[in-house]
Amino acid sequence: MAPARPDSDTRFQALATLAPVGIFSTDINGQCEYVNPRWCEIAGLSQAQALGRGWLNAIHPEDRMRVAEEWQHSTRTGQPFRAEYRFLSPGGRLTWVLGQAIVERRDGVALGYVGTITDITERLHTEATARAGEEMYRSLFQNSPISLWEEDFSAVKQFVDALHRTGVKDLRAHFAADRDCLRRCAALVRVKQVNKAAVTLPRAHDVDELFDSLDRLFSDETLDFFAEEVLALASGRTDFEGETIGLSLTGGRLELAIKLTILPGHESSWSKIGRAHV
User: Fold this and answer.
1) pTM of this prediction?
2) N or C terminus of the chain with fewer C-beta within 10 Å?
3) Which long-range contacts (CB under 8 A, 24 or more apart) does 258-262 make?
4) Number of other residues whose CB lies within 10 A of the CB of residue 235
5) Which of 187, 195, 192, 240 is nearest to 214 (CA)?
6) DSSP assignment, residue 99?
7) What ranges make up the beta strands (E) of the chain?
8) For the segment 28-79, what is each residue's pLDDT rounded down to a tens digit?
9) Could you say which DSSP state residue 21 is in?
């Protein structure tokens, strides 16, 4: 004879005990009736302490009223509950959780709520670290004394690829013989952002004036230098540096040392390129 299958309650208890997330259930009024061991581990309360409205004691005092109001709204309206909040254990351990719950029904009759809590502390820490790193990068970028540009060369690459498909084998000779083609190629560069030094170097009043006047910064030497950049990238290189002459918006000549680099992950598209002018 085959062994008897465990009933649904037994299976639920076994799964709840092993679950990596906190599991809880409440009555129709939102009074806690059950929490699993993982819930107790995250919250820092025993099962007995969590029952009724005891679970609210695990919530950080600054979050408690908000969570209670959102929970009461869900139990009053029958809508799913979802919120991010903090647990503060008696020992002082702070844990961020995502709490979720839905109505449990049988034959169309609402019996209560069943839900989970998931520890999201590490995820939020990672996100906060990433934001801090991004803020530091933005600060360094904007306040660098070196003129920094972020550019998109993806249309340039498409243009070069199209020239190759039409039979152009020697790009250098082609650009030298057809300066208009080279100018059309240069016009495809899209400047995504610049820092403060990039605005002041060519004597622009602000970013808008700089972006509206990019064509005025090109001298014949600058155009030749751009051709060398494109030739380097087309040959498979990911960086290029050299010196050239640019123009300021007041008509002066600028001696520039330039370093151009395709940023990692964009080698095949040329869609993110860093440029430094000294």
Assistant:
1) 0.61
2) N
3) 258/225, 260/229, 262/153, 262/233, 262/238
4) 9
5) 187
6) E
7) 22-27, 32-35, 81-88, 94-106, 109-119, 147-152, 190-194, 239-247, 253-262, 273-277
8) 888 899 999 999 999 999 999 999 999 989 999 999 999 989 988 888 888 8
9) S
